[in-house]
Amino acid sequence: MRSKAVLIGVAIGLLPWAWTAFAQAAVDREKLLKDPGVYGTFAVFKVEGDWWKLDKSARGAAAAEVNAVFQKHAENVATDTYLLRGLSDRADFFVRVHSTEMLHNQNFLVDLMGTTLGKYLQNTQTFNGITKPLNYVPGFSEDLQKVVKSTAPDPGPKPYVIVVPIRKDAEWWNMSQDGRSAMMKEHTEATVSYLKTVKRKLYHASGLGDLDFITYFETAKLDDFNNLVIGLERVRENRHNKRFGNPTLLGTIRPLDEILEILAR
Ligand code: HEM
User: For the chain, N or C: smaller number of CB within 10 Å?
Assistant: First the structure.
């Protein structure tokens, strides 16, 4: 009888733990990073000067608070963090948030901004987009499709991140699908030699902000990226970029802990 009571007691004691473990099961990150129909938000922050006047222990405690917010939302959003500080005069870091509902991205960012650190953050830019199935590749020649689909980026670390917001002109959107497709073929041909060193991801942003696309890249070779963009500036499709960058974000991919450690130093 006594042991039954003990068992029930233990079960009740475990309930909150089991619930928390269930409720905080992390989102399927791999799936979110590859599926179409996923919402991506890029939130860029600058740390205000007063932050650095706080004593080190207060900044350490504030960092722990931020960590807790990331944990709390891990069931709904997949997050990636990037350091801009030192490479940008406008911002210190940014967070890329993915989820199946823009509302989850918003809830996470609202909580982040509500932390002690958040009160010292200036949100200098936010880009919102959605991932979609390929628009042009299915219409390319079999050879080009094969190259694009079968050439994976080389394994190994790619420490650099580049994010380029793009807006197309009205002429681009009023062109026939065939006309755009011909230009995207040129775009793709100019880029294939960089498929191994530049990993990329495309977000469609029309109507979700002032952009049409958010282009995201990871690489270990910034010299390749530089040449890639020069190559793309020479193709006809580039004439239809009404906005290219402004701002372009260049930073390094860093775990949250490392960014918080830099901010707590
Ligand atoms: C390794 C380098 C790159 C490769 C292999 C590549 C390839 C491609 C391909 C195949 C598409 C068509 C996707 C589809 O079928 O919907 C595409 C779209 C696009 N790319 Fe690139 N690209 C690269 C770099 C870049 C760069 C550096 C930029 C600009 C910063 C860029 C901007 C875009 C944009 C805005 C689109 C969407 C066009 C549209 O849907 O109207 N790409 N790219």
Answer: N
Q: Give the Å distance between the CA of 184 and the centre of ligand 1.
A: 8
Amino acid in position 204: H
Q: Whose CA is nearest to atom 8 of ligand 1?
A: 188
> Looking at the whole model, is its pTM more than 0.85?
yes
Q: What string of pLDDT tens digits covers the 265 residues of the chain?
A: 445 544 445 454 554 444 444 445 799 999 999 999 999 999 999 999 999 999 999 999 999 999 999 999 999 999 999 999 999 999 999 999 999 999 999 999 999 999 999 999 999 999 999 999 999 999 999 999 999 999 999 999 999 999 999 999 999 999 999 999 999 999 999 999 999 999 999 999 999 999 999 999 999 999 999 999 999 999 999 999 999 999 999 999 999 999 999 998 8
Q: Write down all domains in the chain, each with its CATH number in brackets.
A: 25-130+252-264 (3.30.70.1030), 137-251 (3.30.70.3420)
Judge contact between 27 and 76, C-beta under 8 A: yes
Is the C-beta atom of 85 inside 6 A of ligand 1?
no
Minimal CA–CA distance to 84: which of 128, 43, 51? 43
Nearest-CA residue for atom 12 of ligand 1: 136
Ligand 1 contact via 243 beta carbon (within 6 Å): no
- Residue 88 CA to ligand 1 center (angstroms) comes to 24
Identify any residues that bridge with 82 across adjacent strands, giving them in sequence order. Answer: 94, 253
Report residue 143 as tokens: 């050879």
